[in-house]
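Now for one specimen:
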Amino acid sequence: MDITLEALLIRQQGFSLAANLTISGGSTAIIGPSGGGKSTLLLAIAGFVKAASGKVLFNGADFTKAPPAERPVTLLFQEHNLFPHLTVWQNTALGVRPSLRLSRAEKERVAAALAEVGLHGAGERLPSELSGGQRQRVALARALLRDRPVLMLDEPFAALGPALRFEMLDLVARIRAEHDATLLLVTHNPEDARRICDKAVLVADGVAGQPCDTVDLLDNPPPALAAYLGT
């Protein structure tokens, strides 16, 4: 799915971010200095932050005024936001129906999603009984069940160690390809961007730039990115 930000301007308490770009499917990293507006950009695309002007288009359709629930996106944060009193199965099933009153077919979808993220047989466990990586797998399974064509991740694995982080990134890449989803990944780690994202958008100096080749951007960073990376 194509995402077009048409002369989009976001203003928040003295902060402003301009974006005039199109992301055409695949996997795109959102990178740049801390506080530059990477997370704000995702929130605007998802509809949680209102733009001062401009448009948000998905495959050419204008969703600028659409509420978050009506936009074709799922947003996964670093905090997995699992309910501690609900089981893994229940937390996952929320992605299908908040009432948790599921049909047999819907229950099968939940089981399939848990199996897809490597949690087959863990449905009766509580979040407190899981590792950090497993909790993020539950959140990812729930996101998959929302069945939206755009998956946006806001540094979801930043708290994990390198080996587990790479494992989760590879899982996301595989699932994205299998579902033919458009992936936007906010990350402060250039290794993450190189690993699973062909394209990258630099957010710096109040502007979200056009998508470009990830390797080219990281190997030849402009001044703002070079200062952030320490290169």
